[in-house]
């Protein structure tokens, strides 16, 4: 009789340990962290939320999350066709533009 009760207790403890490990793994997979120069945009049933430099739980069946960079970005700009001056001289123009999204939530939502 003692062996049967001991087996039940050990089995119950092992089941509890496995359930705790599964709960921790689920918790860790739903926690999304973002660094200081990134924003986390969470969208879904609860609307849209923006997190900068922090962490938040994202429930996969209800909402989705996507990271958005907030650092300075550079782009090469070249015209698709020839450019001409007012005197009719063809010019070759190459430029670099730099864009940075402000860190407030409205600017991030607009840029995303």
Structure in words:
With 112 residues, the protein is of the alpha+beta class. The chain has a domain at 34-111. The protein is built from two helices and nine strands. It has a three-stranded antiparallel beta sheet with strand order 3-2-5, covered by helices on one side. A hairpin with a 5-residue loop joins strand 7 and strand 8 (90-91). The chain is rod-shaped, with a radius of gyration of 27 Å. The mean pLDDT is 87.
State the helical fraction: 25-40%
Q: Give the strand content.
A: 35-45%
Number of strands: 9
* Measured distance between first and last alpha carbons: 66 Å
Give Rg in angstroms: 27 Å
User: Which class do the helix and strand fractions yield?
Assistant: alpha+beta
Give me the secondary-structure topology:
Blueprint: H1 2-30, E1 31-33, E2 38-44, E3 47-52, E4 55-57, E5 63-69, E6 73-77, E7 83-84, E8 90-91, E9 95-99, H2 105-111
Antiparallel strand pairs: 1-4, 2-3, 2-5, 6-9, 7-8
